[in-house]
Amino acid sequence: MNIRRFLIVTLLLLLATEPVFAYLDPGTGSMLLQVILGGVAAVAVAIKLFWYKIRAAVGLGKKSSAEDETG
Amino acid sequence: MKRAEVVSADTFSIEAGSFRDRDGRIYRSDDRIIRGVSQLALEEFQKLQSTRFYTKFLEQGQLVESHILPADQVPLSQNVQQQWAGFLEHSLIPVISYPYEWTFGMLRDAALLQLDLLEAAILEGMTLKDATPYNIQFVSGRPVFIDIPSFETLPAGAPWAGYRQFCEMFLFPLMLQAYKGIDFQPLMRSSIDGVGIQMAARLFGFRDRFRSGVLTHVWLQAKLDSRYGSTSQNVRSDLKSAGFNKEMILANIRKMRKLLIRLKWQGDGSEWGSYEEFHNYSEDDHLLKEAFIEECVAASEAHLVWDIGCNTGQFSKIAAAHASGVVAMDLDHFAVERLYREIKAEGIEDILTLVQNVADPSPNWGWRNSERTDLKTRARPDLVLCLALIHHVVISANIPLEEFIGWLADTSDQLVIEYVARSDDKVEALLRNKEDKYSDYSRERLEQALSRHYKILRQQPLDSGNRFLYWCARNDHSS
Hints:
The complex is a heterodimer of chains A (about 70) and B (about 475). Chain A has about 70 residues and is mostly helical. Helices cover about 65% and strands about 0% of the residues of chain A. Helix content of chain B is about 40%, strand content about 15%. Chain B contains 19 helices and 16 strands. Chain B has helices spanning about 1-10, 40-50, 50-60, 80-85, 105-125, 165-180, 185-190, 195-205, 215-230, 235-240, 245-260, 285-300, 315-320, 335-345, 375-380, 390-395, 400-410, 425-430, 445-455, and strands spanning about 10-15, 25-30, 30-35, 65-70, 85-90, 125-130, 135-140, 140-145, 150-155, 305-310, 325-330, 350-355, 385, 415-420, 455-460, 465-475. In chain B, the strands form 4 sheets. Chain B has a 7-stranded mixed β-sheet with strand order 12-11-10-13-14-16-15, sandwiched between helices. Chain B has a 5-stranded antiparallel β-sheet with strand order 1-2-3-5-4. Chain B has a two-stranded antiparallel sheet with strand order 6-9.
């Protein structure tokens, strides 16, 4: 499915950037992955969740603001 | 109340493997399984009982029977009773087995049951808080879910809490078997939490990423795990506020189910996969052997029979006609898988198929070495069938014949054993490229060893002259 591919590519881009988070919870990565596995309905969630990361990945916005606002 | 308490308060034991969930604990009192539960777990159980899916799965025999035990009927000490808000009683599972003893098909059927239950629960506002195959047991040849307090209310916006565990305990082992031909049992037996994400990512190579499910569930999950695994961010609340909802879990479950159903494993390279077609004795001998075994099992009045080295399971089936249960074991994964598929297709209920090597059996391990136990502790047999196996144990596994017979005598009161003579071509094949250090491998030495522990009740040579059958009962005065 194209949307899923889009999400995977987006996540790959995100993985290429520096991690903004610090410590705790071993299942976090698996929780985030569920956004990709969640089908069409999850696209909006993914964009919302990763909006600042997406902007940072494509060179828009500043990482520092992303850190402040992704919460 | 006092009477039940006095009678059996000191005869119960705590199930050593039930400590992980702080909201409950399993106690065993004689043949009764009692679960102490917290107030929260008790309320969740009452909620569960009111759901439609609970009734449906219970009727289909896919959930263990459970009921709340009135306070005056709890056969546990006063001290234990004070620890819990309430008690549930579950029906007894005849033989407890573990995923590292199951075949591919068994683990997959367990995985599918886990998904079916989770999907049904989510549709009615509940969920399963974990996803471990240890919560599933095989009864009458089918998987049954036993960890009732695993059902709880699904919080709004929560992800599938057991997704990662499902991958590590079900999906990765199954994919390794189907895609790579790697037996999952040794992996599951060495790590109580299954095949970890990072380990799975290393076991699958670059090309495997093109196989169904590997890119996302393995590779991407491993990347996300190492990148975000130690975040201080509250991802749970982030997901919720970003609008994550149960439709997304359902989509994941449905795709996961399709993925599991598509996984195929045909056991290339199985030593015994087609043994039946080339067993080396005559049809007459075959009938003679069947008749002998049938008579012995019937006369033994055994309740539980182990068929060690069951191969195609033909003698397990004969035994099952007379005993109330048979555990059919073999070290050959695919032989056991074939038998599982067969009993499932034919609806044979009294045989539990397990992958088990008598020379390297399931250990006592996990927390305090008692979380998971050896098979004898879980299911002591009344009769062991040891047919055309002794040459493998003595010659291939290098276990001295006397030690093997001693172990058999420790294991059960009765034994049906087949001796395969040195002149038999199966034995010749084993010795062909091996130095013959097996002076203990002879019929005389076998009979000596048997008579040390047992009384030989009946014996039967087969016409070929290469095989001898013995039915023995332990002589309790020997030691």
